[in-house]
Specification:
heterodimer, A: about 260 residues, mainly alpha, two-stranded antiparallel sheet, 2 strands, about 75% helix, B: about 65% helix
């Protein structure tokens, strides 16, 4: 043990002899500079990634939801049917955005501020506009198109959103609540109601003989006939929307940016 | 890349993608193949609207001539179609006077007139008066030279009067 210590001391002494005091200082300065450059580079890369996410990926996700939300496939020939959102969808989207602000999912002063450059305020505004469009189209996707189911599901949405507006939420709970709300609405529309809808048949009389119950439900509830592919499209629309919400930062001030749900 | 360039890129990309989505919902193509057709017609409409806004709009003279040729051959349905395609923005009084005239000539009958066509003729004439209150045609083949004369002929043709039972009406000529 004593021998090893002596050897180490010798090595240190030898190193100290090989590198002079001045050179050691230079080496230390260079090393510190290297570490600082590496840290700055890492910060720049991280900041760039945040900007790409915020100004390219998020708008792309939300505009895609806006595209898919009103898209249906016709039951007859699976051709595209583009449905523009009802006024009620815009109202729900406005309430939902209000809910985001109230629950702190989006901090208004973190997205728009006097000390931000104009370009940043405009770019942030564009992201929030795409979020509004996606929200409106999501309700367009989840609300039944017409008849009694439209008003019943619409009322349920309104009831839930209105209650949530006055509840104390943190962002995590709000996201869970919205996930559950949208999931349930999806099940009601694309599993329950879609299975009550009679398939498109060649004649009215033949339809009644082949699917009397479904024809009765379709007639009574005024259910539109869409191809089964519609449900798949809307599933991805909802998944994209929730992913977008998860990735949406509460603020665009870099020091306060933190991933959703943590 | 600097943040401001990413923001500019993001704004441009979002605007383009957003415009594409708005186009899809406005044009409502029924298949992927139809998207290009709809895009072409939307572009043509946008160009025409742009011409109207900049005051450089002109009717399609070739289609107008086709319409005139069909009009002189008493092929009024084809004639109207050509006239309507020659002036998609409905801004030329001359074209609309001819359209109204096609309704008159097609609806005119020696014994009785077609009231439905005469009504449509009157609607077209309203547009002529709105576009140019002092319009007067320079076509020597047309006996009714002004919207007022044509309107009077159309309105009289729709009324039932004692004069309608005059047997001499059978020898009258179309104007």
């Amino acid at each position: 043990m004593e021998e090893t210590k002596t050897e180490n001391e010798d090595i240190t002494t030898a190193t100290a002899d090989v590198i002079s005091a001045d050179e050691r200082e230079d080496l230390a300065v260079n090393k510190t500079a290297d570490v600082m450059v590496t840290t700055v580079k890492a910060d720049t890369t991280s900041s760039n990634q945040r900007s790409y996410l915020r100004y390219l990926a998020l708008p792309w996700i939300f505009v895609t939801v806006a595209l898919l939300g009103g898209l249906r496939l016709s039951a007859v020939d699976t051709s595209f049917v583009f449905l523009t959102p009802a006024l009620l969808c815009l109202i729900f989207a406005a309430i939902l955005l209000g809910l985001f602000f109230r629950a702190g999912l989006i901090q208004l002063d973190g997205w728009f501020a006097d000390d931000f450059p104009i370009l940043k305020n405009v770019a942030n505004g564009a992201v929030l506009i795409t979020l509004f469009a996606a929200s409106a189209q999501l309700f367009n996707s989840l609300l039944p198109e017409q008849g009694l189911p439209f008003w019943v599901v619409g009322f349920c949405f309104f009831w839930t959103l209105w209650n949530n507006l006055f509840a104390d939420f943190d962002t995590k709970k709000l996201l869970r609540s919205l996930g559950a709300l949208f999931g349930l609405a999806f099940v009601v529309k694309y599993l329950v109601l879609a299975n009550l809808t009679a398939p498109a048949s060649e004649s009215w009389l033949r339809g009644i003989f082949e699917n009397p119950t479904k024809e009765a439900f379709t007639w009574a509830l005024d259910l539109p006939r869409f191809s089964a592919g519609t449900g798949y499209i809307q599933f991805f629309a909802i998944a994209f929307y929730l992913l977008g919400l998860f990735l949406l930062p509460t603020s665009t001030r870099d020091e306060s940016v933190r991933p959703r749900g943590r | 890349m600097k943040e401001k360039y990413i923001q500019i890129l993001g704004l441009l990309a979002t605007s383009l993608y957003g415009a594409f989505v708005i186009f899809l919902y406005a044009a409502e193509p029924r298949s992927l193949e139809e998207i290009s057709t709809k895009a072409k017609s939307t572009l043509e409409n946008a160009v025409t609207k742009g011409q109207v806004m900049t005051g450089t709009y002109e009717i399609d003279q070739a289609k107008f001539n086709d319409g005139l040729q069909a009009f002189r051959q008493d092929n009024f349905i084809a004639s109207r179609d050509s006239f309507e395609r020659a002036d998609p923005e409905k801004r030329d009084p001359k074209t609309h006077f001819y359209i109204a005239y096609t309704f008159y000539r097609q609806g005119w009958g020696r014994v009785s007139n077609d009231d439905e066509l005469f009504k449509q003729g009157l609607e077209s004439l309203q547009r002529v008066t709105m576009l140019d209150p002092n319009f007067r045609t320079d076509d020597p083949d047309l006996q009714l030279r002004t919207p007022a004369e044509l309107r009077n002929e159309l309105e009289e043709g729709m009324k039932i009067t004692a004069d309608d039972f005059n047997p001499l009406r059978l020898v009258r000529e179309r104007k």
